[in-house]
Every structure is written in C-alpha cells, then in structure tokens.
Automatic annotation (TrEMBL):
Residues 28-93 are annotated as: Disordered. This is Lipoprotein. It comes from Streptomyces katrae. Residues 53-67 have a biased composition (Basic and acidic residues). Keywords: Signal. Residues 1-27 form the signal peptide. It comes from the Bacteria.
C-alpha cells in the first residue's frame, strides 16, 4: 500500500532539486538611504540590505532581509527500477507543491560617541522586525511583525510566515523594515516569483526514473 507524507524544504529539498538552489550572495544590494532591493539570478530566496542614520546623524541601523520561500510537497512511494523493483523509493508529488515562506532579518546597531568621532556597537537594544508580502495587485497576502527587547548590537533572527502560498500565482513583492524605535529604520523591497515549474520538472524526471 502506498503511503504519503508531508515534507518541508529548509536548506535543500532533495538531491534531485539541490542544484536549483540559488546563490544568495549574488542577490544582495545596498543603498545608503535604506532602500535596498534584491533581485538575484533566480526568482527564489531574494535578499536585500541597506543602512539608515538617525536625524542627528549619531545613530545608525544597518539591516538585511532574506525571503525564504520554503517549498512544501508530499512524497509518494514508487517501485524500484525494472532491474530492482523491490527497491522502493519516495519521490515528490508535483501536484502537491506549495510555498510556506519565512523571513530572515539581520541587523547592526551603532552609535557615534560625541566629541570623540568613534563608532561603537555596544549595549542591548529594542528592535522591531516587519515584513509584508504583497501580490501583483499590491494586496497584502501575508505579514509578520516581531518586537524584540534586549538585543545585542549585532544579530540575526528568522521569523516564520505561517502562511501557505499557492504555486504559480504570479509575482510578489516583500516590503521589509528593521527599526530601532526612536532612532532609525532601515528597509526595502524584494521581488519573488511563485513559479514551481523547476521543481515540477525535477519531480517529473524522478517519477520516470530518469
């Protein structure tokens, strides 16, 4: 009897689709006004960065945001090859593909010591992490907001999106911000395409045993 199970992609999906993972480092962009925008080689896992100063130019927030689509799918048990039919294998079912995004934020908070011209990255700080996922019509389809207290001047945190996004539903925009309340806020936009075609093609090849 065939069995199915649900699997989530974290770092890799499976050997058959590992080659599809984009190089994140090539997607980064930096802007002095905090309007970082990531484009990347492929439409998955975009990343953007930026920096922003407080009005008095004595406090700075540098930030980076990464959007992790997090593909999900069910697996089905397939018989082995003609030469070894007893060796069953589990392969992805392309009809069950969907996205379950998450958001990763990284920050650096710094202060300029008055009359000394030195920049320090010390102390504990409150921060607000925020991201909105919008469809092609600019409608918000998912949103995350997390208020943090007592954070180190340099840190990183991943926030689950907890919102399933269907495959092949078009282009999306991620609006993100990292705020140090009362001082400065950095943010930008990321572009993402929800196509699952590459994964579907890879799974189809597995189903035929190629």
């Amino acid at each position: 009897m065939k069995r199915t199970r649900t699997a989530a992609l974290t770092v890799t999906v499976a050997a058959a689709v590992a080659a599809l993972t984009p190089v994140l480092g090539q997607a980064a962009a930096t802007a002095a006004d905090g309007k970082g925008e990531g484009k990347g080689n492929l439409p998955q896992d975009p990343v953007g960065s930026g920096r922003s100063w407080s009005k008095d130019q004595k406090h700075k927030v540098e930030g980076e945001a990464r959007f992790h689509p997090g593909v999900q799918y069910e697996t089905v048990t397939r018989p082995g090859t003609a030469a070894a039919p007893e060796w069953e294998r589990k392969t992805g079912n392309p009809d069950t593909l969907a996205w379950l995004p998450s958001y990763e934020f990284a920050w650096t908070v710094s202060d300029v010591l008055v009359n000394k011209g030195l920049t320090t990255k010390n102390g504990k700080h409150p921060l607000v992490l925020h991201a909105v996922l919008r469809d092609a019509g600019h409608t918000a389809v998912a949103e995350v907001r997390k208020e943090l207290a007592g954070q180190a001047a340099t840190g990183r945190q991943k926030v689950a999106g907890n919102k399933r996004i269907a495959c092949d539903t078009g282009d999306y925009t991620v609006e993100w911000t990292i705020e140090r309340p009362g001082y400065a806020k950095v943010g930008g936009t990321l572009r993402w395409n929800s196509s699952c075609e590459q994964y579907r093609t890879a799974f189809a090849a597995e189903h035929t045993g190629k």
